[in-house]
Specification:
Strand content: 15-25%
Number of strands: 13
Mean pLDDT: 88
Distance between the termini: 88 Å
Bound molecules: zinc ion
Shape: elongated
Radius of gyration: 29 Å
Number of domains: 3
Structural class: alpha+beta
Strand order of the largest sheet: 1-2-3-4
């Protein structure tokens, strides 16, 4: 008897583990392709091309597959522990009969729900209903088309694990979850930094990390608010993609990434250097690093290093913006000793003349 109980326990733990791996697949499962999405990829189509339809189908299938778990457990246990007589339900205990009944009810309800959702080409699906609310009179398909187009762009912001992804496009903020995709329009939301969590070691990088939680609250009260969670280092990228400001009512201090911290120190140092005036008739070009900002720094040897291997005058015309110059400078340093960076040197990205932080001048307008 004791032996049979142990077997039942082992089976139960194994089954729970298996079910959990399907509900929230660990990285190993995802890379091995053992997810519902992968197995059903033919039916689901391409997420890249048809984001909304993909997730409508994915959530429906997921619901159906998950509803099979209780019955799957029962049948498996029937083979594993024959003494319980589960495969002959009329002979087994009444508790197991109730369990079997509930498992079947679970499948029936999910099937009815899934069938209801698929009616009229998914018009009744919760995601479609949500888009209908966002459409302000337009059909949900029009909203879906606009989201699909923006999702195909390469410059969207994405973060998060498989199944819980945050996506920010030019006009939409979205989060995927097991049975739903939360969608909000950038113009109609209040984004609030609600919580920060510090973790000493991260699974990925083994250094202290800070996670930020944001609440996305739509102006339309019928839309469900949702939270998005990301590493503090990604905050800058998120902010670049958002058109409205992030509220930080609780004044949470956001940790910056090393390169952001360095850029700030770099900028501060350079603001105390002498400014460089462009000669008459000369105009600043676009920075050749980012192709976006105007070049606004010039390397002029100002420090008093004269020894061999020390700073030399650079004769290049201004071609870089301060951020790109700062990033270049940081990339040439010993990455394990960030405290030494500001006191070190780097070659000019164009002519290789050595310079230090004292030799970088802001260009005066
Ligand atoms: Zn630049
Ligand atoms: Zn140069
Ligand atoms: Zn120097």
């Amino acid at each position: 008897m004791a032996n049979e109980n142990t077997l039942t326990l082992i089976y139960t733990i194994g089954y729970l583990f298996f079910a959990l791996c399907l509900i929230a697949p660990p990285t190993e499962f995802v890379s091995a392709g053992l997810t519902i999405q992968n197995v059903m990829s033919n039916y689901l189509g391409s997420e890249e091309f048809n984001f909304i339809y993909y997730h409508i189908k994915r959530s429906t299938i997921t619901l159906l597959v998950h509803s099979l778990f209780p019955l799957g457990y029962y049948i498996g246990l029937g083979f594993f522990a024959p003494h319980l007589q589960l495969l002959t339900p009329w002979k087994t205990g009444s508790l197991w009969q109730i369990y079997l009944g509930l498992s079947c009810v679970c499948i029936i309800i999910s099937s009815i729900l899934a069938f209801w959702w698929t009616k009229k080409k998914f018009n009744k699906h919760p995601i479609a209903q949500q888009l209908e609310l966002l459409g302000n009179g337009d059909s949900w398909r029009a909203v879906a088309a606009s989201i699909n187009i923006e999702f195909r762009r390469v410059d969207k912001f994405t973060t998060g694990t498989h199944g819980r992804r945050v996506i920010v496009t030019d006009s939409w903020v979205m989060k995927t979850s097991t049975y739903f995709v939360y969608v909000a329009h950038q113009n109609d939301i209040h984004l609030t930094l609600s919580k920060a969590e510090e973790h000493d070691t991260s699974y990925e990088s083994l250094t202290a990390v800070q996670y930020l939680n944001f609440t996305v609250q739509g102006i339309n009260p019928k839309l469900q608010p949702f939270t998005i969670r990301l590493n503090a280092f990604e905050f800058r990228d998120l902010k670049d993609k958002l058109s409205s400001p992030v509220r930080n009512a609780r004044n949470i201090v956001i940790k910056q990434s090393l390169s952001d911290q360095f850029l700030e120190a770099f900028r501060q140092h350079i603001s105390s250097n002498t400014v460089f005036r462009l000669p008459q008739g000369m105009e600043a070009d676009t920075c050749i690093g980012c192709m976006q900002k105007e070049s606004d720094v010039k390397l002029v040897k100002l420090c008093d290093n004269v020894e061999e291997g020390e700073c030399v005058q650079c004769y290049c015309r201004p071609m870089w913006c301060l951020e790109c110059m700062g990033k270049w400078f940081a990339s040439r340093q010993d990455q394990t000793r960030p405290e030494s960076w500001l006191g070190s040197k780097a070659p000019c990205p164009t002519c290789r003349a050595t310079f230090c932080v004292l030799d970088v001048c802001k260009i005066a307008n």
